[in-house]
Amino acid sequence: MRHYEVVFIVHPDQSEQVPGMVERYRTMVLSKGGKVHRLEDWGRRQMAYPIQKMHKAHYVLMNIECNNETLEELEHAFKFNDAVLRHLTVQMTEAVIAPSPMMKEEKSRSLTQVQDEATKAAPAAAPATV
Predict the structure, then answer these.
(1) First to last CA, the chain
(2) What per-residue confidence (pLDDT) applies to 114?
(3) What is the pLDDT of residue 107?
(4) pLDDT value of position 106
């Protein structure tokens, strides 16, 4: 299996659907025996140039390890999803798990860290209300 870095840009009106889309793509990779090494939601950002008369879009970064068949299926899903404005897939030599430079900004958050924190907090009992 090969390592890939995938960035996709989602229409700003569809920002609320991004978590569902990310989970769908993540499940697609994991169900075929692949791995997701890094998953970051960069949020809504200014684009370098307008696309379809829009100046902002929602950015997501994924570092994955998968076979060619899974990659083609993932890119097919991007191509036929009207909410995805652009996507870029780059083959990497090794898995990248360190936070990206974009994650150093305050408003960005790593989805893998949020998921790890959620699994750690799950066994804790909820406080009782009086």
Answers:
(1) 54
(2) 56
(3) 44
(4) 45
Buried/exposed code over 58-77 (b: 16+ C-beta within 10 A; e: otherwise): bbbbbbbbbeeebbeebeeb
| Residue carrying structure tokens 């990659």 | 71
CA–CA separation, 116 and 127 (whole Å): 21
Which residue, 46, 8, 48, 42, is CA-closest to 25? 8
Looking at residue 120, its pLDDT comes to 59
Note whether 29 and 72 are within 8 A (CB): no
DSSP string of the chain, one letter each residue: -EEEEEEEEE-GGGGGGHHHHHHHHHHHHHHTT-EEEEEEEEEEEEEEEEETTEEEEEEEEEEEEE-HHHHHHHHHHHHT-TTEEEEEEEEESS---SPPGGGGSTT-EEHHHHHHHHHHHTTSPPPPP-
- Mean pLDDT for all residues in the chain: 85
**Do residues 39 and 112 make contact, with C-beta atoms less than 8 angstroms apart?**
yes
